[in-house]
């Protein structure tokens, strides 16, 4: 950087720090959180780090400086991460009659704790689900005060959290459920449930997952009010719990006699270690046929995708959709898979 001004050197130094953070973010999917728990928070901040490095790249390009190669390099090597955060392509155009519609939604307990001042949140969520009418629904943070009709969904399996007792998960199905089970994680209000569902001539296992909550507000100003060291420590502990829960989940999934659909709130991003372990060879419905950012949670202006629907390769994914309704701190997601499985 010979001949650069002092200001230019300072800018490049800051640029270098964010470039290093971005590269560390790329590595996190391959590093178990218990090794560097506090560093795992970068998996949630990857969209921000990508944007910052893109801004630096534009800055150096406009100034005609060779320092542009640093940000250009770290952005190019992370092209796979960029494509997992934004998609232009859409679905196949096939209709619901061609497949099985599955929805996942963290309802934030239908607002029974009054997090939103808007009226009738619980009733409006039920009305939304009734109108969209999926074949299978996975709800996280379910509360029994609000429920869908038995006539519309004759089959269901719910399991309240062993710790909280006041909320849990539920799977609604229009197709027969022949077997159910649950994973009750220790020292937490989070859990996983599953149901084996017979769809015409075939059977699939649907997991409804709600992994360890990070207890992060959707408002950045709420985060800034908490001591940064304490915040990182708390989130680091949550990431370690997630890792243990994922290992328990994988043991259960390995024993499934049927092809698997995993739907729910991962409380982590598609650039995290836990996502990579859970996904394995499965298809991410959003990555397959989704469009846009795929956001399911918003940290003020930062779109995060922390809710997923993953499908065994035996399933053909036809459509994926995000619903932009603000009845919870999460947004509902929906996919359509072909009813004829590929065995």
How would you describe this structure to a colleague?
The protein is α+β, with helices and mostly antiparallel strands and 343 residues long. The protein has two domains: 6-85; 96-338, Deoxyribonuclease I, Chain A (4-Layer Sandwich), CATH 3.60.10.10. 34% of the residues lie in helices and 24% in strands. It has nine helices and 14 strands. The strands form three sheets. The chain has a six-stranded mixed sheet with strand order 3-4-2-1-14-13. Strand 1 (99-106), helix 5 (121-132) and strand 2 (136-142) form a beta-alpha-beta unit. The radius of gyration is 21 Å and the shape is globular. The model has no long low-confidence stretch (mean pLDDT 89). This is Endonuclease/exonuclease/phosphatase family protein. Keywords: Endonuclease, Hydrolase, Membrane, Nuclease, Transmembrane, Transmembrane helix. It holds the Pfam family Exo_endo_phos.
Instruction: Provide the CATH architecture of the largest domain.
Output: 4-Layer Sandwich
Rg, Å, rounded? 21 Å
* Terminal CA distance: 59 Å
Low-confidence stretches: none
Round the mean pLDDT to the nearest integer and report it.
Answer: 89
Q: What series of H and E elements makes up the topology?
A: HHHHEHEEEEEEHHEHEHEEEEE
CATH topology of the largest domain: Deoxyribonuclease I, Chain A
- Global structural class: alpha+beta
Please bin the fraction of helical residues.
25-40%
With strands numbered from the N-terminus, the spatial order across the biggest sheet is 3-4-2-1-14-13
Shape field: globular
Strand proportion: 15-25%
CATH class of the largest domain: Alpha Beta
User: What is the tally of beta strands?
Assistant: 14
The largest sheet, given as strand count, sense and whether it forms a barrel, is: 6 strands, mixed
Number of helical segments? Answer: 9
Domain Endonuclease/exonuclease/phosphatase: 103-330
Keywords: Endonuclease, Hydrolase, Membrane, Nuclease, Transmembrane, Transmembrane helix
InterPro entries: Endo/exonu/phosph_ase_sf (IPR036691), Endo/exonuclease/phosphatase (IPR005135), GPI-anchor_lipid_remodeler (IPR051916)
GO molecular function: endonuclease activity
């Amino acid at each position: 950087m010979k001949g650069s001004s002092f200001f230019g050197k300072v800018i490049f130094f800051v640029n270098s720090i964010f470039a290093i953070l971005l590269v560390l973010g790329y590595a996190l999917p391959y590093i178990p959180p218990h090794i560097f728990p506090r560093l795992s928070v970068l998996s949630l901040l990857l969209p921000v780090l990508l944007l910052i490095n893109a801004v630096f790249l534009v800055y150096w390009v406009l100034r005609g400086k060779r320092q542009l190669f640093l940000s250009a390099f770290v952005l190019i090597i992370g092209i796979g991460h960029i494509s997992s955060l934004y998609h232009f392509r859409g679905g196949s155009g096939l209709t619901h009659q061609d497949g099985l519609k599955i929805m996942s939604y963290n309802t934030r307990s239908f607002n029974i704790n009054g997090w939103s001042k808007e009226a009738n949140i619980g009733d409006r969520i039920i009305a939304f689900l009734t109108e969209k009418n999926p074949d299978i629904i996975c709800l996280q943070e379910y509360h029994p005060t609000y429920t869908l009709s038995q006539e519309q969904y004759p089959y269901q399996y719910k399991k309240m959290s062993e710790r909280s007792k006041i909320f849990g998960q539920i799977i609604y199905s229009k197709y027969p459920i022949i077997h159910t089970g649950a994973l009750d994680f220790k020292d937490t209000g989070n859990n996983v449930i599953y149901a084996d569902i017979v769809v015409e001539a075939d059977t699939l296992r649907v997991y409804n997952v709600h992994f360890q909550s990070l207890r992060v507000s959707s408002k950045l100003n709420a985060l800034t009010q908490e001591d940064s060291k304490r915040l990182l420590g708390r989130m680091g502990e949550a990431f370690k719990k997630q890792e243990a829960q994922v290992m328990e989940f994988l043991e259960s999934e390995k024993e499934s006699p049927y092809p698997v659909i995993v739907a729910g709130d991962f409380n982590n991003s598609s650039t995290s270690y836990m996502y990579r372990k859970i996904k394995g060879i499965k298809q991410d419905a959003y990555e397959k046929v989704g469009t846009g950012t795929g956001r399911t949670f918003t940290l003020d202006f930062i779109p995060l995708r922390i809710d997923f629907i993953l499908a065994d390769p035996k399933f053909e994914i036809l459509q994926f959709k995000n619903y932009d309704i603000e009845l919870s701190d999460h947004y509902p997601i929906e996919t359509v898979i072909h009813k004829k499985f590929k065995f």
